[in-house]
């Protein structure tokens, strides 16, 4: 049973529904526990796993008997939590039913020590803690009251198939026009939630400097991500970005594309994908862009350098707009280089970040291998 009692919507919340179809393909019976009416609950149902629901996190603790009865009825002996706050319920279930095995994925990257009495009790019930990168594993080892043997790195995985090119030339050009990209322009995209910490402002400053660094290069910037709170973005921050675009004289040079469910197709419309996040715990967008065969410029911080090797992309300091301008100029002016990096990126994604391999490693842990 995957437990995710979150009313938000981001990579953490998407994870259970992302892997459940592959769990089922590999012969596992998957269940979920989610908040009633949440997008997590909707995504689980859409993935073929109608979840058990509760109205709130507090109510879940009060209904622990109901949850235990559900686990017994379905013969469930593996629990997997995805938010640290959900470990209260997971640890309580294990305390009441010691046969259960409890797993926890630290999707966010812990930022402070968790070694007080409560955390020693909760994490003491965890069979295995998964760090999603080496960068987060190093922080986990310092922060959590667990021996190193119980903290394993497990890179996330994605279904690679949707990211293979599907559009013919005419369809691709139509999509580019929809994004305000002219036929002769290099499309430079930044996909992801529009919230502070994702590096949008340094990227915009980099685009402004790109005009000076490569005055002969025709380009257009595309920001891909929800524009409202209901789509996971910070509306005040979106307004701040619009003002910054105007202040930098980039109006007409940058499109706010909004939330797009067809992200794999949008990658086909882009020539360069930028991920300037300052401290990514993993960097799922980087892997998605690699799977799409795109040349990527990523921030030289957090876990991104683990994913993006020199032969399949470029790294730039997350606080240095000039470094972003230089990287975008290099790739923007060399189509052959973009193709070569993109092909190498796709091969690396196939070798290391396929969801099938991720789930096999995960279920080996579930089974106690």
From TrEMBL:
<dbReference type="InterPro" id="IPR001296">
    <property type="entry name" value="Glyco_trans_1"/>
</dbReference>
<keyword id="KW-0328">Glycosyltransferase</keyword>
<dbReference type="Pfam" id="PF13439">
    <property type="entry name" value="Glyco_transf_4"/>
</dbReference>
<feature type="domain" description="Glycosyl transferase family 1">
    <location>
        <begin position="172"/>
        <end position="346"/>
    </location>
</feature>
<keyword id="KW-0808">Transferase</keyword>
<protein>
    <submittedName>
        <fullName>Glycosyltransferase family 4 protein</fullName>
    </submittedName>
</protein>
<feature type="domain" description="Glycosyltransferase subfamily 4-like N-terminal">
    <location>
        <begin position="9"/>
        <end position="161"/>
    </location>
</feature>
<dbReference type="InterPro" id="IPR028098">
    <property type="entry name" value="Glyco_trans_4-like_N"/>
</dbReference>
<comment type="similarity">
    <text>Belongs to the glycosyltransferase group 1 family. Glycosyltransferase 4 subfamily.</text>
</comment>
<dbReference type="Pfam" id="PF00534">
    <property type="entry name" value="Glycos_transf_1"/>
</dbReference>
